[in-house]
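Subject: Sanity check before I submit

Could someone independently write out the structure tokens for this chain? I want to compare against mine line by line before I put it in a report. The sequence has 302 residues.
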Amino acid sequence: MKTVTVQHLVDRFQLEVLAGSGQLQREITKPRAHRPGLEFVGYFDFFPHAHVQVLGSKEITYLHKLTEEERNHHIGNIVNYHPPCFVVTRNLEGLKYLQKYCEEEGIPLLRSPLPTARFLDLTDAFLSKALAPEIAVHGVCVNVSGIGILLRGKSGVGKSETAHSLIRRGHRLVADDIVILKKTGPETILGTHDGKTKEFLALRSIGLINVSRLYGRSAFQDETRIVLDVELTKWQDNALYNELELEQKFTEYMDIRIPHIEIQLQPGRDVAGLVEAAANNWYLRQQGYSAAEDFMKRLEMP
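---
Independent answer below. Compare away.
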């Protein structure tokens, strides 16, 4: 199971540590933060205690209005579940009673200047990516006119060279050689790098190049949603046919089906141009347009 430490959350959002500074290596395993509400009135049947607990103006104002005995009772009940941490938003003050309980139980108490809704949105997005299931595949990931494409094929077939040609045409590299695929939703796969190969592209006979240094920052982006799986293969006579519209094929990654296209290589063939055409054609299909259907309608016209 993937985890994120509370220290990662502190670093990512520059949070102030009010209590539990020695417990920042506690693990966060759930991707969504939670605002305790019903728990303050004693209802714990569905309390997601493994989530980050966020306290905003509503929660803190409620606690301030309670008597000391009531406040200690309600806070004590929640603290007994030992959530990974508490985060107070809007730099709210008057938290000595919270600090006391968190120090005693070894639970980090953090504070952020952000509004509660904004902090929840950012935290959920961060944790969803950080904790998303992932796999590593051999290939190259590029973004072509805003469309994420995974280029696959046997070693030496020309994936990196094709990516280089696409970069020269104004498109962007995401990852070369090792592509990390993250499942961030029921139908969403993100492609990114492993950190070590960030911005690097390996070209045979040339070696490693840093695309950002060579072609500018616009030649690289950190991640992209994968919507096309393109396999580069060696040319085989009579293997492909010029049908008006080929039957759609798919490749499955972590139970998500991605449209699959095979492009055969031959000396003189503009592979980068074909990848661009595949990306643009995919986009038109998403808009409801089919060139084959359009052509057939024209044939039917008198």
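---
OP: Matches mine. For the report I'm noting this point. The longest helix spans residues 271-286.
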